[in-house]
Amino acid sequence: MNKSAIIIGVITLVLFGACRDYESVAYTQPVEVEKYDGTFLEYLSDEASHLFNQKYDSMLVIINAVPGLKEQLEKDDEYFTVFAVPNECFEYSFDQLNTYREQKKQGKALFLKELLIEPFDVEIEIPNKDDPENPIIEIRHYDYRACVDTLLCRYIFTGKYDTKKIIEAQESLSLESYKYKYQMNVSCTRQTASGIVGEGVRSFTLSDMNNSQLKDLWKSTNVVWHDIYTRNAVIHLLTNQHNFGYDKFINYFKDYGNEKK
Hints:
Strand 12 and strand 13 form a beta hairpin. The protein is of the alpha+beta class. The protein is built from eight helices and 13 strands. It has helices spanning about 40-45, 55-65, 70-75, 85-105, 110-115, 145-150, 165-170, 250-255, and strands at about 5, 15, 25, 35, 80-85, 120-125, 135-140, 155-160, 170-175, 185-190, 200-210, 220-230, 235-240. Strands 1, 4, 5, 8, 9, 10, 11, 12 and 13 form a nine-stranded mixed beta sheet that branches. It has a domain at about 40-95 and about 150-250: FAS1 domain (Roll), CATH 2.30.180.
């Protein structure tokens, strides 16, 4: 796919430390940053077009694994806002999950493909006080793939929310996640750049509101590059220091393999 950049101002990248930590990036980003001649799924697949040499394979694996999700995201009549999550963010979350499972003796280390299995039911015997010889049979339904989908969709929103629109909305917007309508918040503050008041972006965050209006309870992560315009979405790139799923990942998957206990 072809990529074209519209330059208004000078892009300056200064990388400090290891290549992995691109949250430590100082840049003056153009007001209109980048246009990509393709869909946002094609952008995520097109490694040659990625800034900071990041890859987004994990996002694509989930999108391809969840029934119907890829087709929904390829619709011509919908426009999206996507916060691209680098592979490292998934690795970080799985490292934390597997450390927890090892400490709690919950079983083997897990990988993404194991969470994308088909839904299943488990029969649990519950003691029956009234009839001890005939325990109560409870059927529990497990759908780990849907849990992964729920978390992924918190980085996808219907509609166009670029930095201009967010700043015009008094620099903060509460948005409903794609499909599941989970409340997230986007916040974008501006700074003076090149002597022009109001130009430039000082900070841009995506926050899990944790079902609360109290900001002290929110979990936030930084955007390191914003406003990549594709044919069907505007993409913002998240730092590779982000923990995919914020603080929800361990709780969702810690008991994998122990459903009958």
